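Quick one: structure for this chain?
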Amino acid sequence: MRMIKAFNETIRYIESELDGEIDEGRVAMLSCYSYAMFSRLFSILTNMTLSEYIRLRKLTKAAVEINETSAKIIDIAVKYGYESSDSFTNAFKSFHHVTPTEVRSGEAYRVVSPIQLTLSVKGGKHMDVKIQKKGEFAVAGVKLNNIDSSSCPAVWDQLYKKYDHDILSRLGNGQSYGVCFDVESENKINYMACYHVSDIAKAREMGLEVKEIRAAEYAILSLKGAVPGCIHEGWKYAMEVFLPEQGYVHAGTPDFEVYFDGDMYSPDYKMELWIPLAKRE
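Got it. Here's what it folds into:
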């Protein structure tokens, strides 16, 4: 337990100096190891070098500031140790897959959370997470209120008794969602099995329920594995690691299971979880 405490205190110190200069002597004092040994232990524990972790955390914090402030991009670049806009843009794009200017315009960016050592390592590369603002859109399908989460497959069964995938896909862009909304009970949820819809009038004529979704900012978790296990793992990571470490809470607006084509029971199945974000007060 002393190692865990020392490790976490060292990481907290490193986090406090991401926009400054990390004192290797301070790291040694807090961790009780030389800087080189701490770096080695860090790599063993996290499968990531300390220098890579620091670089990715700086790029994460830079993206957050670009997204949430009006500060000049070059000033943010200098703050996090880049001497030119070109070197910053190249590093930024290599990690986030978009440019700083595109993030300021609303494109998604990746997030590496601060590492925390418990009985296992949390954060870092444990799960691929992006933050992105989504505009307004609408969905149509079948919804059931006040159900157990284990009953969600039954909602999909009801939807597909009405119409098959091909017909539902033609209502919009073809994307299917499982939507949880207006949760009031500790043990029950309201759930909608639905598809993106462009023609709302047509969907209503077909006897489908329509839900209009307001613009919002989401944590987008890329999941891999059989359903529903991968969804449970995604939520566990989001609630235990990502949201508290990034200073967010669930915004209380609808969240989404985003399904793609493929065998949902395969260990290689890929999907997404969208969690609406609000800053922790």
